[in-house]
Design a protein that fits this description.
112 residues, alpha+beta, five-stranded mixed barrel, 5 strands, 26% helix, 41% strand
């Protein structure tokens, strides 16, 4: 019994902990949007920028607006991203510059 409990504790201690619970808005980037990606079976919005930031241990190939953001807010952000992309605008992206968001991408808090 002791061995199995010890083994279970070792396994549980190695499970990845979600970083999204620790995310905070702490950085801004002035950039242009180069690509916007959505999927029919996923509620997240992904996008690329011309000058991605350096965020430790994150995949900076994309920014992510997670499914946890209310649908109306995601739609507003998506509209702003598409408008900026189509018009070639330079816009501010507010993001978490210290902790990875969902899917390991950079978590977005503001687009404008």
């Amino acid at each position: 019994m002791k061995k199995s409990l010890c083994g279970l504790l070792m396994i549980v201690s190695q499970l990845p902990v979600s970083a999204s619970a620790q995310n905070t808005y702490n950085a801004n980037l002035l950039t242009k949007i180069t690509d916007v990606v959505t999927y029919t079976d996923e509620l997240t919005v992904l996008f690329k920028v011309t000058n991605p930031p350096v965020v430790p241990n994150c995949n900076v190939s994309h920014f992510v607006v997670p499914a946890s953001v209310p649908a109306e807010n995601r739609q507003l952000i998506l509209s702003r991203l598409l408008t900026a992309r189509a018009g070639g605008e330079t816009i501010y992206i507010g993001y978490d510059g210290q902790t990875c968001g969902p899917l390991g991408f950079v978590r977005v808090y503001r687009v404008g």
